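Posting for a labmate who doesn't have an account.
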Amino acid sequence: MFYTFLLLLLITRLTTSTTSSSSSHQKKIKNREKGITTIHKHQTRIVEDPNQIIEEISRLTANSNELSTCISPGGLEFSYKYFFKIKKELLEKQKKGKHKGIRYVTKIEKDNIELVKTYLNSGIQIRHVNNLPPMSFGVSDKEMSATIEKMEGGKKIQSLLISTESSYIQHFASLFEDLWKNGVNAEDRLKDVEAGVDLADIEVISRSSRAQKLYQDIVKSASKEILWIFPTTNAFLRQGKMGAIPLAIQAAKETNVKVKILVPTSKLIEEKVQQLKQNCISCLIDVRYIEQMSETMATILVVDRKHSLVMELKDDTKTTFDDAIGLSTYSNSKAGVLSYVSIFENLWKQSELYEQLKTHDRMQKEFIDVAAHELRTPIQPILSLTQMIYSNIDQDEYPHGKKQQQKELLEVVIRNAHRLQRLTEDILDVTRIESQNLSLKLEQINLDELILNAINDAKRNQLTKQVSLLYHQCDKDNAVFIQADKGRLNQVISNLISNAIKFTEEGTIIITSKKEEKENKVVISVKDSGIGIHPDILRRLFQKFATKSYQGTGLGLYISKSIVEAHGGNMWAENNSDGKGATFAFALPVVNK
């Protein structure tokens, strides 16, 4: 920064300036008492005589129309000792509208609260800044002065830079305004200090090299616990290269520091974690896996619940810390650090519950899979034997009335066996879909033939309802071909037609296929004139068990949508605009014959 250059200038010019004689000092004092001020136009110089420095600061203060000072706690005492009387005179001028006022930024601590109160009571404005620049400076509308000395105990300044250069004045005025803007009101800070509340260090670090050094130092300082949240796989891998995780292992070995890590799961990470645990078998290192966080792109480190470091990812594809990290924020604020601890612990508990749920879900799916297969085994012989008995009734020597009764009873058995068979197949399909094992036997098929076969099957199974089924082909002269699993696609179309019949007491169901040339896809729709889709069901229509019907399980549409999506298509539904019935549709890509 610019003031760093001035610090170097101050240090290098310590031996280049000359001091004035005592008679010269006395002359300047007399001139000041008479109201005569001397300003060196466009001059930057170093003053090394402590007494002359006091005179120069007095002159700068008395000659100002406004005064802004950034000063160390020791400098605050020095200023009170030598310049408070002059500043009280300026404050009197301010009351008369002849001065714009005096402002200080400093660090308010237990040792200087009484002095700060004295300044405040006099009318000086003060704000607290925890991380002051490495120099004290004052700037008026005409001059600026600066020193790198801390002035502990009100000790006199041995070297002071003074300048009337406008560029210096403007820069230090701008620097002061930034400090003032980010400072804490003195009254609020005094309340915190008197209440025993410590204002913590919070630092925003722009340089990755500085962040890396601080990162390593914080990990080294751990005595009890290290908590880590890594948002990506690469974020974790970079820690090994820059040495943070080896430092944590060393702390775990030597001082039994507990190390807890939350990291996205991947095969590479799991291998690295196994290596880590093998290298430190007796260490208290625990790793749990979380989903990769797409929105929270920052590595979070908390050490001993006293320090936190949040490192934003600038470019996660980079392999080195310097290239990957953007801004970092360090804090030892108790409230801030404990907030990150709370975030970590919540994620830690969620990861534990997630693992339990995964285990439970896996066991549940295994049970359902076994149960469905076990149900499938007896259903087939039940259907086969019952249908055989049904066919042989007419050949048996039963009275006519008795034969009809036997047929009706067997029809109930057959109908319910078919329902149980469909339920079993649906459960198996859901298990395959959720375990991502739904396999497709793709072949090129004629879509019109497939739809007509599904319609004919539906007509044969329709026994009581007076519902007409109509098919509108998109192009009767040119067949539409798609690449699909014939059985699975027939399952989808049959399910949509079956649902339409179920919710339509009478009327017409129109099945349409329409080719969309621009997008090279075909849209198949089933429009009924039934009761429509209930509003409560519409928003979750394609989820599992979404049904208000006393018939069915609500799995059909979930399975159908999954099958369509597995073919690279999509499915949707809506109530018809005339208020009668609903339309279900899905789109699939078309292939050349």
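Reply:
Got it, the structure tokens are right above this. The chain has four domains: 2-194, 202-332, 359-434, 442-589.
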